[in-house]
Records
---
Amino acid sequence: MEEKEILVFSDKDIKPSEDLIFSKIGDKKILWQKIMKYLSDNYKDASGSWNYYNDGKQWLFKMVQKKKTIFWIAVMDGAFRVTFYFSDNAEPVILASNLPSAVRDGFKKGKHYGKIRAISTKVTKETDAEIIIKLIDIKTKIK
């Protein structure tokens, strides 16, 4: 049975700062910075913000390009999780991509929320950050 992840930013009155994020994710800071640098270098019109969501009682980081949401980030001790939501029309692109088979299969078999499905990756190592970068490219190119 998979252990439930405990997200660390649940206090509505404490908006996450870079220092606070890095104090929670520890040495995964370099992976966070790699993803954010990739976005700033390749997607000048992308921007992110922290928002508190009452439904989950958590602060989440939302990255957008113009009005399109690219992904969401939730922070836990020692790691962070990046979640993308793709419409069904993304399936052929994702299945034809060079993403790891576990990611492609997970999407294909993933639970539908209306006409969308999620790809969620807990970032703990370099290969996880590389998956996120590939997903950013896919997400920004799909209409």
---
Amino acid sequence: MDVNNMKVSDFRKLEHREWDEETQCDSIIILPAKVDVLGLVKYRVKEFIAKLFHLDLPDIWQVGHIHDSGYRCMDFVAVKDNKPLCLLSGCSDVIHIEGIGGYGHNWYRRFGNIPSSIEPGDWNIDCLRKSGLLRLWTNNHKKQCLCGAALSSFEIYSFPR
């Protein structure tokens, strides 16, 4: 199915890849985690009681789909030729374009040190017409996306085809 014709619920039905697998694709779609409304209400009640009686505050990570940072988790859909491949993460609260620090894939092996300059990226974001989800892609036809492991921080790189 073409990603432009998919609903959010269609994306949520996709299978997850293995957490430590690197995935190559043309683009990714940013899929916000569903809100665990009941869990959030329980958390707020526990938080209220803790403040009222000067107790330790409950941990936010107990609420499903909320990262321990307090931000909502995201998942990402790998896309190739406008067709969804799989879900990529589900546990990340942040995305790092060109990796943490922005130095690119395997930067230490390539540069041996923090580089003094790096080539500019060519990343773009557009909005899918039916679902309204954001899609992240590289404008360079010689590059594709390489998605790292599913960790607290999700890393994506532009990578030669």
---
Amino acid sequence: MSKNDPVTKRLTLHPLMCWDIVLEGYSTLAHRSDLARLENMKRKHRWNVDFDSLLKREFDALILTDPTQRICWTSHGFKFMTGYTSGSAFHKKPSFLQGKKSSPRVLQRIREAIAHLRPITVSIINYRRNGSAYNCGIEIIPLLTVENKLMHFIAIEKVIH
């Protein structure tokens, strides 16, 4: 068989199509394990939040911060979206993803919402590990206990194309 033979071309492309299916399955499993992990943390920290309704929206990554906005957990999708591992993001503030094209006005809106423990939905230009910019849709929600004590913030993030 030659490289230009139609059968050879189909055989050459076939593994790539299989790989796409495998990655799609991995993504679904990763999301499921992320949600299971969040459910365990919800019980441990007694968050007063309905994750079923909260996480029905599409997302690429989840970021959990402590009350001082230091990252304490990221979902599997965080690395695919940003190029950073959970370990390299651990204990940093999410602002490490921002740069020269990140809107100061949007950043101020985020700071005000966090200070007043209000949920906020914005889009902002963030930067991947390789330096490339991307438009990120972010919903930030304070996670309170049933006694209204702030425990964490969760950011639900999606790349906007």
---
Amino acid sequence: MLRALERQRERRYQEARDLRADVLLVTRKSESVIRIERDVHAPIEQVYAAWTVPAEMTDWYAPTDSFKTPIAEVDLRPGGRYRIGMKPPDRD
């Protein structure tokens, strides 16, 4: 999970399928528990927005500024969906 939260874009997951594969490896065990702790040196409002405001999510999750993020959706209700879609610079 720390890789997903990396401050430097090039050190984050470059493809969602890689993140999914790693999450499945951890969560397929009944005794698995995920606890994420990370110090982010930014105002709490900015960090919260990066996780909850679609317009902010598009900037936070793209691996580079040349990527486009046409899909950024979040439903903050319990059980709500979270969806990010990115396009590399060579695809329109």
